[in-house]
Amino acid sequence: MPETETFRIPRHKSHIPAARQRVRKTLAGWGVTGELADAVTLSANELATNAVTHCRVPCARIRITLTLDGPELVLAVSDPDRDGLPRPRDSAPDQESGRGLALVEASADSWGYRQGPYTKSVWARFTLAEKPAGDRVPVPS
Fold first, then answer.
1. The sheet that has 61-69: what strands, in order across it?
2. By the 8 A CB rule, do 75 and 82 touch?
3. Which pLDDT does position 120 carry in this prediction?
4. For residues 44 and 23, is the Cβ–Cβ distance under 8 A?
5. Rounded to an integer, what distance in angstroms lies between the CA atom of residue 26 and that of residue 6?
């Protein structure tokens, strides 16, 4: 049975650090650590920042969902701006922004988006190299 953690943050940049901490805590609780936890947390940061920055719906709440299903972990960040679809950009080295989706693409095994009737969700999929620590079977001595 998959494990899922969903939470919401207000559409304001000041809530991004709390979202990162919540993602990191959830991953640690599932035994996901190291480089994979770093990649998922970085992707969550970038996708949440994009949602907060580009969502055109006032007073929106951003939904962040982590799902651990066997060897696969999926991060999804949703907002109520259904038509504000993600577009990767080529950013010059001296630009301060515009690299978020490139970072997600480099960190995740795959990423994409889907539109619902009133929302859009940008997702990133990660493959676990092995089962999280909590699922490991102890080796007899």
1. 3-10, 61-69, 72-79, 120-127, 110-115
2. no
3. 97
4. yes
5. 10
